[in-house]
Each structure stands twice: as C-alpha cells, then as structure tokens.
Amino acid sequence: MNASEFRKKGKEMVDYVADYMEGIEKRQVYPDVEPGYLRPLIPATAPQEPETFEAIMNDVEKIIMPGVTHWHSPHFFAYFPTASSYPAMLADMLCGAIGCIGFSWAASPACTELETVMMDWLGKMLELPETFLAESAGEGGGVIQGSASEATLVALLAARTRVTRQLQITSPELSQAAIMEKLVAYSSDQAHSSVERAGLIGGVKLKAIPSDGNFAMRACALKEALERDKASGLIPFFVVATLGTTSCCSFDNLLEVGPICNQENVWLHIDAAYAGSAFICPEFRHLLNGVEFADSFNFNPHKWLLVNFDCSAMWVKKRSSLTGAFKLDPLYLKHSHQDSGLITDYRHWQLPLGRRFRSLKMWFVFRMYGVKGLQAYIRKHVQLSHEFESLVRRDPCFEICAEVTLGLVCFRLKGSNKLNEALLEKINNARKIHLVPCHLKDKFVLRFAICSRTVESVHIQQAWKHIKELATQLLQTEKE
Amino acid sequence: MNASEFRKKGKEMVDYVADYMEGIEKRQVYPDVEPGYLRPLIPATAPQEPETFEAIMNDVEKIIMPGVTHWHSPHFFAYFPTASSYPAMLADMLCGAIGCIGFSWAASPACTELETVMMDWLGKMLELPETFLAESAGEGGGVIQGSASEATLVALLAARTRVTRQLQITSPELSQAAIMEKLVAYSSDQAHSSVERAGLIGGVKLKAIPSDGNFAMRACALKEALERDKASGLIPFFVVATLGTTSCCSFDNLLEVGPICNQENVWLHIDAAYAGSAFICPEFRHLLNGVEFADSFNFNPHKWLLVNFDCSAMWVKKRSSLTGAFKLDPLYLKHSHQDSGLITDYRHWQLPLGRRFRSLKMWFVFRMYGVKGLQAYIRKHVQLSHEFESLVRRDPCFEICAEVTLGLVCFRLKGSNKLNEALLEKINNARKIHLVPCHLKDKFVLRFAICSRTVESVHIQQAWKHIKELATQLLQTEKE
C-alpha cells in the first residue's frame, strides 16, 4: 500500500470510525458470543498472498463487531470510563505517522520535551504543588506511564531502592535479602488489585489496612499497623493512598495519612486513577488536599479526561528517586546532551524502554477542549450520576451503598446478596445496558458508572426504568 | 468536535500523514534543536477556551517537526528499525475508535480472541513448535506485550515464582527471602540492558556470561558459571538467550544452551526482539533452531514486521506459569465465563491491567501484505545490509566488526577508538544520515542498521559515499 492508496483508504476508515461512533447507541452494548466464537470464523493460518482492504473491512463487521463490548456506548455503565475523543484520535494518527520511539531525548527531542511541558500543563490544571512540576526550581516532574498499575509498581520500586540505600548506610550489617524480608508496604483494603500485584512483583510484603465505615483508610488503623510491624522488627517503607477506589470511589484520608508517612520516612504514593481527572474542577480540588505530603502521584487521563488509552500521568517530587532505581546506560543509548542536566531521558522513569509520542494526545485534547470544556465534561458526568442516585434514593426497594462523590453510584436492592446477584444477571442478560458488581464489606453491590462521552440524561432515565422493571419482575418471582 | 467535524479533520489528517511520509526523505533526519528548545515556544498553561484544529496543525510544523528525529526517513540508520506501515496505521485508527480495554475476555471478547488467533498465525509463520500455540492440545499460547523489556521481566517473574514454589516444597525450611537471596539469572554479556533491569526489578542476581569471539553465549561459559554458582550454594533459575543482540546482531548458541537449561531445570527465555521477524523466511529459520528447549520466546513485530509500536509477541509453553505468577481476581473483574477453561483473561499474562486492541494491527498487516509480502520486505532489508557490507569490505581503510546476518552492519575505520568517535561525530553533525555506536569488546564501533520501510539501494550508496567523504576529510586532517 502506498501513500496515495492510504489517502483513499484512510479517508474510508475515518468515515467508518465516524459511522461507528454515530451509530454506537444502536449496537447491542454487550455481545452475545460464547468463548471460542472467533477461531472458526478465521483461517487457521495467515494468507500467503495480499488481501484487499475491503475484504478486511467486511470481516470487521462480520467477525469483530459481534464480539465487541462497546465501551463507548451510552448504555455502557461498567468498570470505569475509558477515554475517547476525536481530538485524541486525530493526535494518535499523527503519533503513528511520526512513529518515533522516545526512550531518550536524542531519540526524538520533541517527544520528550512536549511530554514534560504537557505534564506541567496538567499539573497546573490540578493545582499540584510546584515541587511536582518540571519547570519549578525543584527536583520534580511528570511522566506518562502506560497504566496506573505500572505507576504503582514504579513508585514501589523507587521506594524500595531508596529505603535499601538508606539502610545499607545506617545498618551495613544487613544484606539486601535481609532488608527485603523486612520491608512492608501498605494500602487500604479497598485498594486496586494492582497494588497487591506490585508487592508480589517487587518481592515485598503488602498489608491491607482495614478501611473505615466510609471505605477510607484513616490514621488510627494505619498507625496501629505501623507500630505493630515496627515492634516486630519489620520496616514500613511504602504506603499507597487511593483517591477514588475502584469498588465505590471512596477516598483515603490524605490529610491524616500523609503526615504519618512523612514522619515515618515512608514513601507515600497516591493512586487517583479514575478520580484524578475531576480535580481540574475547583469544586473537587479539595479531594486532593494532602497531595503535598506525597512522594508520587498518579491518575489516568485515559480514563476520564478524554485522552484515549494509554496515558497515565505520574508525578514525582524527586526525579532522581525514579531514575536512581532504573538507570542503566549502554553505549547505543548514550548521546552528547545527556549529562547536561537540562534534558530528560524518560527510559529511566519507566519499566519498558520503548515509548510512543503520547503527549500529542494531551496537547490536542487540552487545546481543542480548553480547560473549560474539560471541566464542563467532568461536571456533566457528575451531574448524571447524581441524577441516577436520586432515582435510586426515591425508590424504597433500593439503597445507595456509598457516598456518591463523582461519576459512580453503588446501589442494590434492599435484601440478600443472592437477590442482587440475580438482578445483575438479569440486567446483563437483557443486554440493554452493561454493569459490573463489587463487594462492599460483605454486601454484593451493583456499580453504575457514568462512562460514555455521549451519555445524556435520557440514557440514565432509560437505564433506571429498565433496571426498575427487571427488579419488579424479580421481586414478583420471589414472592410467587 | 462532533462526528461530522471529525470526518473533515480526520481526512485532513490522513492527507497530512500521507504528505509527511511522501516528503520525509527531504526532511533533515536528525534535528538541530538544543535541549529546552520547546518550552519557550509553548504557553506556560493550557488554554481556558478551545482552540481550532488548524491552529494546532500550524504548531505541529512550527514547534514539533523541528524537534523530531525522523525514524522513518530512508536516511535513518540508527538503533534498530521501528515498524511503520499503512495497514497498521489503518488498524490503529479502528483500534482507537473501538477503544475497548481488553483485560478480560468479557471486557471485549473479540479483543482477546483475535489476539490468541493472531499469535497462532504468527507462531506458525515462524514454525514455532506446536507446544507454544494456543490451538494445540498443549498448555501454551501467545500474548502481545508492550515491549521486549516487559516480556523479559514477565518471564523472569514467572520463573521466580516457579522455582520458589518448587523449593518451598523440597526445602520447606527456606524462607522466601532466603530463596530470593540465592536465586541467580544469567544472560550473555551482549544482552540488552533490559535484562539487567529485569533482574534489578525482580530483586535477583543477574550474571553476565562472557560471550565468545563471535559475541555468542556458548555452553562452556554458561556451564562454568552454573557449576561455580551451585557449588557456592546459589540457585540458578533463569537464562535469557538473545537471538540478534542490540550491539551487533549476534546469536547465542541455542542448541548448546537450551539442553543445559532443561537439564538444570532452569527457565530459558529467548529474546529475539529485532531478529525474530526474519524467522518467517525459511532461509533464516535455522537461526531459531533450539527454540524447542525454551520456556518462553519473544520478539517485536513492532520492530521489523511492519506492525506499528507497540506489539511485542511473546509465547510460553505453559500458560499457567504466567498466570500463576500474577493471578488476582477482584469481583469487579470476575465474569461468568472465566472458569470455563475455554477463555483467556490476558490481564493475568502481563504487568499492566489495561490493554488496547493491538491484534487488529497484526490482522491488517498480515492480510494486506500476505506472508510473501512480509518475507519480501525482510529479504530486501537483508540484501541492502549486504550491499552496504560489501561497500565497506571493498575499502581498505574500513573493517567489518561482526558477521552480517540480517539488517545490521557493524563497521569502523581501521585505527583508534578516538578516530572512530570523531568519524561518528562528523557523520551525526552533518545531519545527512543518523547512526549510533556500540562497543564490541573494547572497540568503538559504528552501527549501520537498515531501518526505513522505504529505504532503497540509492540511499545505501549515498550514505556510503557520504561516510567515505567524511572519513577521507578526517584522515586528511589527522595526517596534517
């Protein structure tokens, strides 16, 4: 395929994409296929001879689309949103064409420098303390990671390196393995599974701190764990505080937890994967109060800030604490500017070596929406979740299970877990909307997350009416 | 921006991309900018109000392009290739539109199932042993990782889990930390820096095995290290063999190393990041002989198989060895099919949770090129590298520093390292072509890698003429 054919097919693809987005509401949000559906529809081996673009596009509708869960349908209320916007898609096309691998400054200076500046832009939108910004006189800065899981792991590894180096000075009799055996990390029992996984990968203990009645990590529970562990000879080194948990969008108490971490010389990482985007609105910024105590902070613009996956924004107060954990410099990656102090080689900030020119997506989205446009988008989602919340609250058969702060509503039928499991099954089997559940303490709960960029009040009303109907049927059957 | 505006701007972007690719040869391959060039050209904060697409595209040419290293220029011979093709770009547009996050089967069945089948297609193109294929009766299968670094780390972590579990049964007196302290991984001294980094992250020792005169890891050196370490109480558990090293594209001796790993119950991971693509050609397949001894195998279609970044293909003989190392199942990710044995939840195969619909790129590229088209592409690059090799060999001032097997030529002026450093500096300062160096044993060597999809004999001849001229000037100055 040459450039002139690409001009033609590329424009057909643009139209296909626009058609898909315009027609998505009419597609069934969750597919009917059974596991293994696809293999019989596809040849067992790659073709020897080239096939046409048209043949493939036919198969997209015939083979792929019937197996797609449509995350951008206004009937999709599962998990958390994943971002999708036209400006981000346009930027991604450009990113694919430039196709540079920005592991070092020299590998494509624009790729590195735009990222640094975009992370400053975003940091300012959140009113992050200056110490996290690269333009400040401090030692901080931001980097785009692939996912919040990677950010948590990178932070844990940096913290592990920091504490190990400190201990090797103060307690030279301890071997590295002896240190590793004593290290303990902490998160709330509501933290994302990726935190537990980071502990597994890093080879350190991870302890879950019992959350309070509002599903938040509080000072007393953390302190108790720290004291108990220190008394038994362990070394606390890392705490993950979550702002906007996956289960119910609860918030750990940063203003309590932060000072303790600082006093105890424990690295504080904040995971605000979903909720972070909301902090660009002044009325939600208070949820981030206490970030000044953190060593690292992360959230995913690829969830709720209209920047298509992947774009996970991470800031650290000390660049050297990341680079110190990873820095290895083979000759084929050295370049003449790298010791100037002016430049950033992002390969030292992340797990993989390769990286795409992802900051283009931020640049396009921030400029084409403007801060006001992005704020309006967040506010609309929050308003819709409150709309759903009030529908639930008005119905005596249902209950709200956690405070609704942003775009997630946790609710259930008053009654047994079994009843609610049956309701969820009915909802997802009907295929009109898509939800996933969670456990809150011992309760089986339905999560209603405002996800799609194009979701409107009418979809919320339809969804509620549908849920209500299925619930009425279910309660009817129960009675009979 | 709505769908109808996207139809218009998207088509403008398609034309911009086509223009960029058609005109890339005329752009200076390596930029003139100095560190910090970009920040003064961009506002200090994001705009409050929306800006137009046109304003941004103006800035792309004014601010971004002057700082881009053009990886797809036919004058780019640095690092290794990074893939770029129109079919992959078309697929990426579709991937962006569907925008699903395929962490589990249910999150988008098509995303998971196409990946499994595409990995089988690719495995068959390479004639991988059946045990690595998901369609076989065995326990193997493939997964797309983000990068070879991640694949190496995932393999190391799976191997660490496997050996730890085995030892906890056979030597229950050993604590996990005591085991970690004894674990040793190995790779050749020519292995990529990501291998050393995987050791750092995994908290295990990594030892470099001295390579032989052809920069290959051989049986005797590996055996010696294993015996010495076992004698001193250490536990060898992981070997990375490299096929196509970054420095000089040398090949570890799999047929020697493989059986030793199997005898010693050591996990063998093969990293063929660059070279792997060539194995789709029957005449290069012998370089992969011995893969049958491996537990895991990885290469990057995003380097040399025309699938744009990121797409790193990894296969394992036992799926359960990966998933066993990572599996955590919170309720919001559970779904009704997951225990059927028929389905794959790829989140258990990788470090991050989120993942894009990357197999679409493989599907488009494999079908629009056909296997024959892909083979022709590989062969053309290999032919061009031999063309450059013979130009170098014909010149008595120069020497070839390592066997030229695929698309990389390592060469230098006969003479001191200083002389060759001066030559490289002259070449890169002239900005007509772009190269990076490597060290082979103690020699400073220039790497000439065939990279661009559009590079032709004429570019090789121009590049050599240019290098020759600069070398002649340099030798002249030296004499004076």
TrEMBL record, chains A, B:
Record PTM N6-(pyridoxal phosphate)lysine, positions in chain: K303
Taxonomic placement: Eukaryota, Metazoa, Chordata, Craniata, Vertebrata
PANTHER family recorded: AROMATIC-L-AMINO-ACID DECARBOXYLASE, GROUP II PYRIDOXAL-5-PHOSPHATE DECARBOXYLASE
Keywords attached to this entry: Catecholamine biosynthesis, Decarboxylase, Lyase, Pyridoxal phosphate
EC class name: lyase
GO molecular function: aromatic-L-amino-acid decarboxylase activity; pyridoxal phosphate binding
Cofactor: pyridoxal 5'-phosphate
PROSITE patterns named in the record: DDC_GAD_HDC_YDC
Any one annotated GO CC term: cytoplasm
Family: Belongs to the group II decarboxylase family.
EC number: 4.1.1.28
GO biological process terms, semicolon-separated: amino acid metabolic process; carboxylic acid metabolic process; catecholamine biosynthetic process; serotonin biosynthetic process
Assembly: Homodimer.
Pathway where this protein functions: Catecholamine biosynthesis; dopamine biosynthesis; dopamine from L-tyrosine: step 2/2
One Pfam family, short name: Pyridoxal_deC
InterPro entries assigned to the protein according to its UniProt record, in alphabetical order: Aromatic_deC, PyrdxlP-dep_de-COase, PyrdxlP-dep_Trfase, PyrdxlP-dep_Trfase_major, PyrdxlP-dep_Trfase_small, Pyridoxal-P_BS
Top-level taxon in the UniProt lineage: Eukaryota
Protein name: Aromatic-L-amino-acid decarboxylase
